[in-house]
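Submission checklist for the structure archive. All mandatory fields must be present; incomplete records are returned to the submitter.

[x] Identifier: IprA winged helix-turn-helix domain-containing protein
[x] Organism: Enterobacter lignolyticus
[x] Residue count: 228
[x] Sequence attached
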Amino acid sequence: MPVWGGAQVKGAGKIMKFVFETLHDYYRKRVLDRHLRDVIACADRISLKTNEVLTLSDETIYFVSEGTMSIAMSDDPRIIGATIENMPIGLLEYYCPLVEFTYMALSPVTILTISMAEFERIFFHTSPENMKELTTILVFMLVFILDVHVERRTDSGYHTIKAMLYRYLYRRSINSAENEGIANFIIRRTNLSRSYVFRVLAELKEGEYITVKKGKLISIDRKLPVDY
């Protein structure tokens, strides 16, 4: 179970760090795509270019089959996070129409779309296994949001930047098509000022802690300073 002070979570018979890389790797190793055949059988396909925003339609659920999309509140430009595999986009808005999210392609994406009626048939009426898969996906959606909260509630802006450096490298390792620079990646997801982010990155680069080329973080070359 989560230990908020120590930022750890127990799972798979061992203690794991409560960080995005560990959680996402664990999530990706779970078999949660048995429902996919049923979805594909009745789905339409749409494609979006990088930075294109998905326009949601009523009574429609969307599954990203290729690529990644960012998630943000519609009245706040800061990015909350990214879609995870098998995430049913549109489900939050369907059951809680008071909220509105913006989904933007971080790379070229292919999306499967099905009606809400088909979604309910596949996950609620087809088999208990599909319902279990959906429940697991929704649980991990919550876990990832809690991870973001833990990561970005730190008192020090520098500690937030440290966590974001590792998150950036991990995201690039699983989706090389994402082309966002490290400074913009941090600024769009936090309350930190542009000048502060650039200053910290410049000093880490000057101290040979990180390698940055053409605005993109290439590597973390040695243990980052505890404080700034």
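[x] Structure attached
Curator remark: The radius of gyration is 19 Å. Residues 1-16 have pLDDT under 50 and may be disordered.
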